[in-house]
Amino acid sequence: MASFLYRLGSLAYRKKWPFLAVWLVLLIGVGALAGAFAKAPSTTFTIPGLDSVTTMEKMQERFPDAEDATNAPTGNIVVQAPDGRTLTDPEVQAEVNEMLDEVRSAGVLENPETVVDPVLAAQGMQAQMVPELEAQGTPPEKIAADIAAVSPLSEDETTGVIGVTFDAESVMDISSEDMAAVTGVLDRYNDGDLTVVYNGNAFGAAATEISFTSEAIGLAVAAIVLLITFGSFVAAGMPLISAIIGVGIGILGVQLATAFSDDINEMTPVLASMIGLAVGIDYALFIVSRFRNELVQAAGGNDLEPKDLAERLRGMSVATRAHAMGMAVGTAGSAVIFAGLTVLIALAALSIINIPFLTAMALAAAATVAIAVLVALSFLPALVGLLGTRVFAARVPGVTAPDPEDETPTMGLRWVRRIRQRPVAHLVVGVVLLALLAIPAVNMRLAMPTDGTATPGTPPRIAHEITEDAFGPGRNAPMIALVDTAELPAEQRPAAVGTAVEQFLATDGITNAQIVATTEDLDTAQVLLTPDFGATNPRTSETLETLRADEADYAEQTGATYGITGVTPIFDDISDRLQDVLLPYIAIVLVLAFLVLLLVFRSIWVPLIAALGFGLSVAATFGVTVALFQEGWFGIIGDPQPLLSFLPIMLIGLVFGLAMDYQVFLVTRMREGWSRGKTAGNAAANGFKHGARVVTAAALIMISVFAAFMLQDMVFIKTMGFALAAAVFFDAFIVRMMIIPATMFLLDERAWWLPGWLDRILPKVDVEGEGIREYTADDSEVRAAAAAQSGSTAVSAR
């Protein structure tokens, strides 16, 4: 592989224009297709096969007019009267009706005539329901409870809820223009005396806008780190340009994928850009850094002053520089491939869980990483070749950027010497510190995003809070029990449905239960359940478990069955599924990555230590994230909430790949030194000296890129940005730069132990560049001339 990559790197450097043109054409082409065919991303999360989803599908079969609770183009307008007044006041009611007239006249709603003043709607509902319920012999207190559970007007008449349905097939089909036609009216009236906010499926996407400020800030900090790393404005720009090209193609590809899949949600491109930008910069940084090292050796060796490198480059031939790039891609490029492969394994393995939206997010991020690897191996050498001798020009004043090849002890060498003197102490301190930070993780609570977890101050969050205060927390977390009596004789069905309602009312945690729809022959009934608590309250999950556990007794007693569905049960089931698959997913990733690292390092201990170190860094990350974002420690987060259900599994997928990146970047140079005859201890120290600077720069870049995403409005992205930044910090600076070298020194020669039988069957992968070690610039010229001659001969033959 090293030989192939050597040829690719040197060829891209010499024949730059075809490589540059291919990537630029690809970027423009994907962008044009995305602009022509991309659709709005989904705002829903569903998983096929869940009890709640199966019940929802059954309900839609029995009731053709029933909508998918998670994807219906519906929403609520929540109106609250000014302080000291009610919605029944003539002036207030007139203003509400004036607003609704404008909403109806927008022409974007289905059945606009149903959008009515909540006061009139409540009066009409009472006039219809009371006689019907009285005729059925319903007690007055139950009639009052049933009306209160569905009334669009609060008991104190200060708050009203108006349901709206957009004229679209699903949430994804609502155009931004149609949405703006409604929200523009509502926002304008909200600026007056009335409080007018909105929530629900339809308005979820309108409340959150994805900003590119995070990417800009991440790039700015990355530029500063690169300037310090290379001491050159030109060289610092190479990884940035390379990463932007890769992420640009990846994000545009994700947008294009919306034309073919409904599983691309609004967070998919953000996560793809987050991981793509970080690894894209890091992979390019690793190759450019190795290219610089090769040039230093070719230009004068260890005695060369870095500030003189730009001048020495002017006297180098193209063949010499192409050879240096070939060596860089052949060695560092091999590490980049395997580092990228571990990221791809961790992300692609998420598809095994069979959660469509999570699979889409993972594959989008994986594709962006794959593009970043390809760009670093082909576009980057061509870009450097375009600049030629000017690649390290435009020196940064005051920055010396010493090269690790220099004999002068670097900061990394001084640090690893300290670890070598006291490896046990450094190992114990690192492990104990991460273990203590992990303690809060035992209290981790998970939940899916709802209006109640939206960013404070946004319309959905305000609407959720107003509704909870006016109608009770259960109004925001309704459930539907689908009672199936199809197997019973017709005369037994009413009693079976009645028994179900009585059982629901007797369930702890249920405020009210009432029949809201039945089929003509009463073979199926929908029962609306109003819980005592909100959607993210653990008590609501306990109530759902109780309802489902009682279904067996109900079936045995009546012969009928029931299932529970609705947004709250669906989201609860998603959380349970994600929690159930977490450990199997970790096992799959660890095994696959162990095999890859076994192939790279040809050692049993190195992959094992890498995996255990990853476990420590992730556990510490979970602990700190729970403490700050869920428990609200130190008051840093003003709105503590349960962590999003798929944050742990997505975090593990992303962080594992990044952790293995650092492992590959750092330990590859250790392996390279050991394979060339150094003792294990000297190889570990020397390899750390060479890898520490680039890994430090890479980690700082990733931390800055991820931390910048805390500026996004989406709570999940904000939390994920912090968690990724914290994980990179723990893994790079505590695990890889303290625990790993300490363990390598303690193991000494045993670190590279591999059973003989396994050594014989493992394929040889030349990551250290053994096959290209003896290549010279003259060899490069000979091979280039031979390739050109071969090409001309083939043309002549034609």
Automatic annotation (TrEMBL):
Keywords linked to the UniProt accession: Cell membrane, Membrane, Transmembrane, Transmembrane helix
Membrane topology category: Multi-pass membrane protein
Chief location of this protein within or outside the cell: membrane
Region of interest (Disordered), ranges: 66-86
Pfam family, one: MMPL
All residue ranges annotated as the SSD domain in the record: 251-386
Gene3D superfamilies: Multidrug efflux transporter AcrB transmembrane domain (1.20.1640.10)
Compartment(s): Cell membrane
InterPro entries: MMPL_dom, Mycobact_MmpL, SSD
TM regions (residue ranges): 216-236, 243-261, 267-288, 322-355, 361-387, 424-442, 582-601, 608-629, 649-670, 691-711, 723-747
Matches recorded under PANTHER family: MEMBRANE PROTEIN MJ1562-RELATED, MEMBRANE PROTEIN YDFJ
This protein's name: MMPL family transporter
Source organism of the structure: Corynebacterium suedekumii
